[in-house]
Amino acid sequence: MIRARKLSRYGASAALLALAGLSASACGAPGSSSSSGSGGGSGSGPIKIAVVDAQSGQDSSLGHWEYDGVKLAVRQANAHGGIGGRKIVLTLFDDQGDPTVTTDIAHKIASGGYVAVFGAAESADSIAMAPVLRRAKIPAITSGQSPQLAALHDPYEFLNTPTSVTYDSTLANYLVKTKGYRSIAMITNNDAYGMGEHDAFQADLTGFGIKPLADEVVTADATDFSADLTTIRQHHPQVLFIGAEEVESGLIAKQARALGIKAIFAGGAPMGTPLFVSTAGASNVEGSIASSAYLSNDLNAQTRAFAAVYRAAYGQPPELHGAKAYDGAQIVIRALRNSDAATGLKLANAIRAVRYHGLVGDFVFNADGVGLFKTRIGVIKNGQVVLVQ
Amino acid sequence: MQVFVQTLAGGLGFGAIYALVAIGFSIVYRTIGLVNFAHGDIVMIGAFIAATAFMSARLPFALAVLIAMVLTAAIGLVIERALRPLEHRDLDLMLIGTIGFGIVLEALATLIWGATGRAVRTPVGASPLRIAGIYVQPYDLLIIGLAAVAATGVWFLLTRTKMGAAMQAVAADYEAATAVGINAGRSNAVAFAIGAALAALAGSLAGPVLYVNESLGATIGISGFAAAILGGFGSIPGAIVGGLVFGLLSGFSAGYFSGYSDLVTFVAFAIIVMIRPTGIFGEATVNRA
């Protein structure tokens, strides 16, 4: 029997409760975290730049650090008069590390008067929003490193990091030519970053005439790696290459040690981060080898100065993502100054013309938006990454 | 063969966590007939509380888990009290209410603990046990043991105590139960509190094997929900079996189907549910006649 239901006052209370919940979630939902000024690229008023980074979800740590790096660069620029007297105003969009959400955000940005985008931290998210931003002629500088980003041949897309090709060729050279390892197994995830790592590293091994002992692929949100790691364990590799983001790489490393795998872990930038070390457990990753563009705050005078300013601003030391994002923001700021706050293709060309000596390297952009072609090798010792090469 | 048995061992560990989540879903469903969609987020809150107590306050892990269970039981009581006026009147609005509470909990977690997550070290630091070439983590044995104790405790409560009898009476016939003086509101509150405490136990135990952040609840909650359906929603034995089966299904899918593991897991789940729509042990819920 179907009862007629009318909204009682109790029903109204429950509905109001649900609405309150939805309103509370709006604080963390995709959208502006601060109101934007007017003007955008109109030639007067503040210059609006969007920041697209995960502020919730598994990748929220990366997004948090990147936003901090960008904010620091913008704060410094505004303190020195901004761009021709115009302040830069940032608007943060939480894409939750989800490409579907990122695409939605890109549409908002396209119609919101923004002149540029910082983000996203993840390759998949950056690839998702690239077509929308390209149509809107809005340059974006991303921390994603998948070779698929360069393969877009997008004049509006720039990377503040080398691609996986560079990370992995440096790593492969070190592992095979310097250390003499030839017994190597691989485990990568199947998102844009993981696939880029897989293809790049496998190509490098093939170039050395090495076939991986095992080549396991997992999903980006997998939690139980028992079967894959047991398969790898049976081959007794000297090295286990991990191609996944920080948290997943850490979980893989942790479970690998729990299953008795004694291989040295090797990987790209995620492996050189404190998040990887803390997730895996420092004792489990002692001796791990990372290829990264930013291994330590103590590399040189520039990184030490940056670390001091960052620590003063946020109370904690910076790491790779903050440094990359800082460099990327500085590049866009320089381009805006050099082009007299241009927008569209003019700004994109101005970004491409910037030559910048950054924290993560010396930027010289090619036609595909890649500006860095070198990384460094570090080894984890006592929970810290130490520069080796 | 070694891969098969090792996968079995790994799957049972995760399966025990899913079983705890599934029991929490089931105990509320069998008592009130409500699917508590805030349950996954309660798992997450429990994980954060335990992680903070264990890693930041440096309390013993057992105490950290206990604190998490007590505090989230209180959250369960708050949710039940807020929704009590709707009990046995409008189940759909209650369901919407739980969704709202879940969103509020997620936002609160971000406000309290920030956007970055927490890595939790394994509290049992012993080397893995080697049994016939299979590596068994002492911590996995702890998870399975605690899940068994919790499930036994719930079974004992429901079948051997007055409170359990009252909860079953309210589920069987609400009017008759209230007519003989059973406090249905208190009975339902106990169900919510126990469900929340079990969620916290699951989240606390999951912390050291995963990564504690706002998405943990969704990750484990969906698996626990599927486990509850698989076993028979509302059935406690069903929740246990469903959890273990789902854990094994996920583990074997990950091992044998690589990047398609999620697809395979849920296709297999869908097939099982189509063959047996009420789950392995059948559905157990309030009498709505």
Could you describe the 3D structure shown?
The complex is a heterodimer of chains A (389) and B (289). Chain A is an alpha/beta fold. Chain A has two domains: 180 residues, 3-Layer(aba) Sandwich (Rossmann fold), CATH 3.40.50; 128 residues, Response regulator (Rossmann fold, 3-Layer(aba) Sandwich), CATH 3.40.50.2300. Chain A is built from 13 helices and 14 strands. In chain A, the strands form three sheets. Chain A has a seven-stranded mixed sheet, sandwiched between helices. Chain A has a five-stranded parallel sheet with strand order 2-1-3-4-5. In chain A, helix 6 packs parallel to helix 7. The N and C termini of chain A lie far apart (76 Å). The N terminus of chain A is likely disordered. Chain B is mostly helical and 289 residues long. Chain B has a domain of 194 residues. Chain B contains eleven helices and two strands. The relative contact order of chain B is 0.22. The model of chain B has no long low-confidence stretch (mean pLDDT 87). Chains A and B meet through helix 1, helix 2, strand 7, helix 8 and helix 9 of A and helix 1, helix 4 and helix 10 of B.
Average pLDDT figure of chain B: 87
Fraction of residues in β-strands of chain B: under 5%
Label the overall shape of chain A: globular
Please, what is the average pLDDT of chain A?
Answer: 88
- Return the domain count of chain A: 2
Q: Name the shape of chain B in a single word.
A: globular
The SS-based structural class of chain B is mainly alpha
Cα-atom radius of gyration of chain B: 19 Å
Order of neighbouring strands in the sheet with most strands of chain A? 7-6-8-9-10-13-14
Could you tell me the number of beta strands of chain A? Answer: 14
Instruction: Report how far apart the termini of chain B are.
Output: 51 Å
Percent of residues in helices of chain B comes to over 70%
Please state the second-level CATH architecture of the largest domain in chain A. Answer: 3-Layer(aba) Sandwich
If helices are DSSP runs of H or I spanning 4 or more residues, what is the number of helices of chain B? 11
Write down the secondary-structure element order of chain A. Answer: HEHEHEHEHEHEHEHEHEHEHHHEEEE
Q: What composes the largest sheet of chain A?
A: 7 strands, mixed
CATH class term of the largest domain in chain A: Alpha Beta
Q: What distance lies between the first and last C-alpha atoms of chain A, to the nearest angstrom?
A: 76 Å
Strand order of the largest sheet of chain B: 1-2
